Amino acid sequence: MTKSLSELTRQAKEDISNCSSLKELDSVRVFYLGKKGKVSLELKSLSKLDPKERPQFGKQINEIKKTLQDKISLKKTELNTQKIKASIEQAAIDITLPGKTSSIGNIHPLSITLNQIEEIFINAGFLVDDGPEIEDEYHNFTALNIPGNHPARAMHDTFYFNNEYLLRTHTSPIQIRSMERDGVPIRVIAPGKVYRRDSDITHTPMFHQVEGLVIDKDINFTHLKGILHDFINSFFNDEMSLRFRPSYFPFTEPSAEVDLLSNDGQWLEILGCGMVHPKVLDNLGIDNKKYSGYAFGMGVERLTMLKYGIKDIRLFYENDLSFLSQFK
Ligand code: DAH
Predict the structure, then answer these.
(1) Whose C-alpha lies nearest to ligand 1, atom 7?
(2) What does the alpha-carbon distance between residue 66 and residue 1 come to, in Å, rounded to a whole number?
(3) Domain count, the chain
(4) In this structure, are 140 and 275 located in the same domain?
(5) Is 190 a member of any domain?
(6) Distance 240 CA to ligand 1 centre (A)
(7) What is the tens place of the pLDDT at every residue in 127-158?
(8) Which of 249, 298, 301 to mutate to test the pocket of ligand 1 (most atoms within 8 A of CB)?
């Protein structure tokens, strides 16, 4: 082989092994083996040679061509493998990382309280009833001995739809609906949402009450005191002190408000109650000489706040998970 041919071969091999990308490798291939490449040009120079030397020279060039082609194809495989490896490494998944899990929710504190209240009263022989949140003014007021011009209507900051319909301001209208449907004797509680135009640290425009109603023969105030003491002790799972304070509600006579002695020595109002007013029974056509009974209505938010030491009622409605998740 001539000196220039072996130099060409050496240089080509070196260029091939120095390639670091497929693109580079292809331009090296074109440079040596392309139509106008260095090796191809050598082949063309064959015609200028002595005919005797041509076969020998041609053979050599073809061998060089073959060698370089082989080397290029090896290099190509090598570069391809490198490329795949790099992309695998880049896209690698760390299977030791913790996976995504879905977090499990929990029951809202007010629902916990409502469930507990229902359970306690069901165990004491009460049925659970409910009624419409959009109420008519007859059930919300008139039937409860609060006629249209009665000042007690001003105690309720009512959301009215029109002259007849409103958002119920208390659960007491369910007393009327239960007695209309089932008559007496009756022993029910009715939990539910109520609405008033009021909003601050201790009031929200919607809140919850649980109404209670017992009508039977020979029911008196001591029955009412007894059931409320039992309920409160059971709800707080402790021996609690209650104070019955004389009060006024149009639908009960006598009426009382009940305060609970809190851990920090304060009396806090938790419910209103009384003996059902004879007029209410009369409105429903129930013989008030034969039947009497008691009723009560308690604030669910207030009881929950006392039980868990919650200071701001609005926390119940802000859906702040750091607050809600404490009630597992
Ligand atoms: N409905 C009253 C209120 O929302 C609470 C209440 C008081 C309910 C006395 C009663 C009751 O059943 O007897 O303020």
Answers:
(1) 272
(2) 15
(3) 2
(4) yes
(5) yes
(6) 22
(7) 999 999 999 999 999 999 998 888 778 767 89
(8) 249
